[in-house]
Amino acid sequence: MSNLDLHPAPTECGGRGGVGAGPVRELSAGKEVRLGESTMVRRLLPTLGRRMVGAWCFIDHYGPDDVARAPGMQVPPHPHMGLQTVSWLQDGEVLHRDSLGSEQTLRPGQLGLMTSGRAISHSEESPREHAAVLHGAQLWVALPDAHRHTAPAWEHHAALPEVTGGGLTATVIMGELDGAASPATAFTPIVGADVVLAAGASARLPLRPDFEYAALTMSGEAEVDGVRLAPGSMLYLGCGRSELPLRADVDSSFLLLGGEPFEERIVMWWNFVGRAHEEIAQARSEWMTGSRFGEVHGYEGTRLSAPELPPVALKPRGRAR
């Protein structure tokens, strides 16, 4: 998924500044952003108060939207570098195409993982014949310096491991949780899980004290560490936790996102993650000239043009708030 803002603000993030060294409860509602012609999303990362959670550097939550008589998601071809995109649906379908020639329809409970590495482009759209409801999340993971120039790749995982107990079912999307490990390729210590709580559930999830965590509510009203979360809100939990108490009065679900705090300082602008202004500017130029990111075939429409760079140089500054 793309950041379609015509005037994207440069985001400087990374490093341990701003990482909750101990357990905290920091609630944010996100910001509404229009994605393409027909989809509104709630942007939970980056925000003015928080830039990253582990290596997670971008979180959009969308829906549930009634798209029965609408085109649904329509995101034209656009580029990425220096990151992984994680596509996760709870309702509906999204058709992914990329410059590697991949073409895959994603459905609820299936992981679409695209590693951009040095350069890739892709499009995302609801199929012509699609379900009445569209609901999901699009997330980015920053690649560490040692792997950010790796070859681009696409992975589709239709089956993922689960953790169950106490009225809880957690599907492990990325990394490892309570001994269950996702088959998805990860380049940093990380975890992402879709946690479903049945009405009346009360459970505790084991966590790693050296990870920082956040919970993004997808549906219902899960109570996470005593905080009741409305859909579309995110609770930052900090580090230092060995377990996470959960309960729900109604059927609920949330995404648990976490990882080892990302030490490197990065620059994130539009759909690029880099380390300096010069490489962001070069990537923009090469997308506009068509000399680096390949071509997406099959999308009926024109590709996105890159916004203009800001008039000042982009500098990585860490997580300062």
UniProtKB/TrEMBL annotation:
InterPro entries: Pirin, Pirin_C_dom, Pirin_N_dom, RmlC-like_jellyroll, RmlC_Cupin_sf
Residue positions binding Fe cation: H78, H80, H122, E124
Domain Pirin C-terminal, residue spans: 193-292
Transmembrane annotation, as ranges: none
Cofactor: binding comment: Binds 1 Fe cation per subunit.
Cofactor(s) annotated in UniProt: Fe cation
Chain spans, region Disordered: 1-24
Any one GO molecular function term: metal ion binding
Domain Pirin N-terminal: 42-141
N-terminal signal peptide: none
Keywords from the UniProt entry: Iron, Metal-binding
Family annotation (Pfam families): Pirin, Pirin_C
CDD domains, alphabetized: cupin_pirin_C
Protein family per UniProt: Belongs to the pirin family.
Protein name, entry field: Pirin family protein
Organism of this sequence: Streptomyces triculaminicus
